[in-house]
Amino acid sequence: MLRMESVRKTFGETVVLRDVDLDVPQHTVTALIGASGSGKSTLLRCANLLEEIDDGAIWLDGEEITDPRADADAVRRRIGVVFQAYNLFPHMTVLENVTLAPRRVHGVPREKAEEEARGLLERLGLGAKATEYPDRLSGGQQQRAAIVRALAVRPRLLLLDEITAALDPELVGEVLDVVRDLKGEGMTMVLATHEMSFAREVADQVCFLDGGVVLERGAPEAVFEDPQEERTRKFLRRIVEAGRLN
Description:
- This protein is an alpha/beta fold.
- The chain has a domain of 68 residues.
- It is built from 9 helices and 10 strands.
- The strands form 2 sheets. Strands 6-7-8-3-9-10 form a 6-stranded mixed β-sheet, with helices on both faces.
- Helix 3 packs across helix 4, helix 3 packs parallel to helix 5 and helix 5 packs parallel to helix 6.
């Protein structure tokens, strides 16, 4: 569904992605792991065309979306993105946040958009929060609302960028449960995460990024139990010492 080939991205003199190759088959979950600053978030932003790449190419469903002739807005309508900072509009209710893109971008009539949004909110345990404003929700509820907003546009691909990073530890589980459910439904996802145990459980492939390079990739059991690269082994040792990988 998503393919990156020799993708390179720089900010000034800093090379953030170095000739990245990535293949994400449909109905699979790819977990991006690595230290902060390794390029995970930038990779996701390039996949959604929020950042313009300097070299290489990206395909979505077989279409080269980095072709200058590609309609970036049309591409983004097929991709859902959830950031760690929620990014809900504070002056809108949860329902208004969720229905904004379907109504304004996709032209869905208000009644239909609200009906579908309420169904999604109910499914993710937020049915009673539809008329609340974001500041009346817990962090976990806000992040679930952000996921509902991304799902409301019926994306082909869902990108999740450290979606538990801003949450208190007791709220992490409820958000990760949502991702588990989405995997069970066949949603294609790429997620950047520091939750190693979760990545090992839910991912079909794990990519370890280091210095903007996909240094190692493979099935979770291969990457976590028998990493081939010394940098991967060093990173995972630090994670184990910090008690974040069981």
